[in-house]
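Hi support team,

I'm opening this ticket because the web form for multi-chain structure prediction keeps timing out on my end. I have pasted the exact lines I submitted so you can reproduce it. The total is 355 residues across two entries, so I didn't expect it to be a heavy job. Is there a limit I'm missing, or should I split the entries? Thanks in advance, R.K.
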Amino acid sequence: MVRRGVPRGLSGDSSPGEASPRSPRATIGLLALAAAYLVVAPLLNARWGWKLPGWRELAEQAAPLPSPTAEPQAAPLPSRPATGPATESRPAAGRSASEEPAGETRARLRAIADGSSLATYESPAGLVYSRGSQHGHRLRHILAHAVDQPDRPGSHGVFSTQDPAELVRWIDEAYLLGQRGERTRLEREGDREVYTVDLGRTVGFVGGEQGNRSGRPATRRLRLVLDDRRVITAFPVR
Amino acid sequence: MASSENRRDDSPGRMQYVGFCRVCGGGAIGVRLCGRCGDLSLVCDECGALWTDARLGGPPSMHLVDEAPCPSCGHSLWEAPSRWATRGQVFAMGWLARAIEDGVVTLREGAAFGPGE
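Hello R.K., no limit was hit. The queue was backed up. Here is the completed structure from your submission:
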């Protein structure tokens, strides 16, 4: 006989009462299943990109708690583009900006900007700024676009802010628009994704040799080059 | 006697470059000298796309991400003693000198982006 609604093996079907829902064996079985779920769920999430809740989420659903360290204006972590599971080849990073107070984030960014830190920084949108480039760190490389270099060959996009926190916000904004395909042109070259996004307001001007010959035209567009979620560079373009 | 161009050639912050990057559209492709093996690579000074030959219209051979290994020996191309090659070093490298002489690429000199060493 098949009993509906009760999985075989949980109810026991040999003798009545042997594993009734209230019996110690049933309780142990349920606890074992729950423990197995808590172990397996993160593995399934990592392997397949699922979002099965873990014990923390289950506990929060039961009694939601405010996060005292969350940055109020932090953007939510976007779902990853369909290139693989969320944890695949994600670089090791410290706390993301969405997990720490704004003042602490600013201090971390300032330390990277002035060269006293080479720490990896993850933005609220999940973009990763790590070591690399001839400037030593991707954020410093991007900050080199906060000043004109009039004798640089070709064009040199110059941001209209020198504040690293503001630059990170603008780049996050461009990334999120790019993820939604809004006002965005996306090109791919191997592992590289190149977003050119119209932010709808002036974000800088075109400098360098070419831009200076053209009167340093203002621009609303930001180009963002990514390798997975690692920021390679970002700069204003005509 | 050294020409004024030759004096500029060795000054810090100068870069020999052979075109502009088709990947990011924002960088010049400079000639980078490996400080260990002396080999030359063509590297975008903006996004790190790297070519090991002069066919810049094709996809790059590799992209420099966190590390910047020389394709020949693995030494870092961004860390000293690696640097932008001088004009003399460019013409001492057979494959690149031939590509310039054949008009496959045009060698120019300009300001390096950033530290420039």
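A quick check on our side: Residues 24-48 of chain A form the longest helix (25 residues). Let us know if the file doesn't open in your viewer.
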